[in-house]
Amino acid sequence: YEAVLTGPVEVQTANPAVSGRMPAIGVFRAAVLSGGQVQVMVAGIVSNAAYSGVFTSGAPVFVISGGLFGATPPAASGDIVQRMGFADTATSVLVLPRPDLFQIGQ
Q1: Could you write out the DSSP letters of every residue in the chain?
Q2: Which of 33, 46, 74, 98 yields a CA-CA distance of 20 to 30 A from 86?
Q3: In this predicted structure, what is the pLDDT of residue 67?
């Protein structure tokens, strides 16, 4: 069976260091103002020239502070680690959020 949302849903930027802000379910397709409508991509390719030099093709990509992508998982005590996908190229990420999370020991 397919599921459907039948009412408004609030989304926030994921943050591995903030309680209640994980797990990430996808990525915003565009910038949005607080209270505005947003589309969330739950799987697919995201490209950004700013990724150049950050990712190696095939390497895992993680949620890091501020809801950004990072090549290195967060490591501070209490942080939640979630793999969001893999680097497709040096400037694109294959978004496939993983449901398995773990918390850095406190």
Answers
A1: ------S--------TTSTT--S---EESS---TT----EESSEEEE-GGGTTT--TT-EEEEEGGGEEESS---STT-EE-EEEEEEETTEEEE---S--EE---
A2: 33
A3: 81
* pTM, entire model: 0.83
8 A C-beta contact, residue 46 and residue 24 = no
Residue type for position 106: Q
Average pLDDT of the segment spanning 15-37? 85
The pLDDT of residue 89 is 94
Three-state SS at 67 = helix
Q: Tell me the β-bridge partners of 40.
A: 28
Instruction: Please report how many Cα atoms fall inside a 13 Å half-sphere around the Cα of residue 2, on the Cβ side.
Output: 3
Burial (CB < 10 A; 0-12, 13-18, 19+), residue 31, is exposed
Q: Which residues pair with 36 in a beta bridge?
A: none
Structure tokens at 93: 């990420």
